[in-house]
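Please review this one:
***
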Amino acid sequence: MCELLGMSASVPTDICFSFAGLMRRGGDTGPHEDGWGIAFYEGKGYRAFHDPGASADSEIARFVQSYSIKSNNVLCHIRKANRGKVSLENTHPFARELWGQTWSFAHNGQLKGVKKLTLKHYNPVGTTDSEHAFCWLLGELREHFPRPPGRQRALWQFIQEKTETLSELGIFNMLMSDGRSLYTHCSTKLSWLTRQAPFGNAQLIDADMTVDFADHTQANDVVTVIATQPLTSNEQWQAMDEGEFSVFQQGQRVWPRQNKNNSAGK
């Protein structure tokens, strides 16, 4: 299985600390050595780095860890391949354009029969079930909303309904962003924590690294981190429930409704 990492922040924030812990799980403290990728949103811009090798041994990963890219929304993925060969085109996060915005997507799990879902507007480049699911989901969004919906909640509700459909096919732990919101769906395993004043120390589980966030933040900063498994040993992470769909904006959880009909993982 793969692992996910996401961040939603009220101000542009770097993810170097959390990423330093996750990258060790990509072939060092964990078995996820079949590629990794990370995507950053900076205003209307989007930048991403991908590598089909193990993150623990990747010079690109070391560069990202040491280069303080500040972003309000970040998605990261380390891969343990199960469907689709180990290759650059099969490395998450995947990205597509919708309504003049770059949408990105990363997934952990297997979706049996997902390639039977008809694709309407987007086609995969690689061969993973994850990319097919993303293309289908964005196609459904474009079909239902030819233009961006005026009400955010209508968009959130529709995405939630479609993630429920995908989760019926298997394990669907997901991170997705349009640069404004960070969308999450948990089938089996996702945890999150929010850092805000008063800020304190954090100790990584997978690396000998500690940081005092009080030295790097302002009083009004709010930063939420989402991960497959907790990355720090001395902070209170909250496990998401099976079937839980959430939306985060500016570091805050703005859509906490829980799916009730999801059967994935049972």
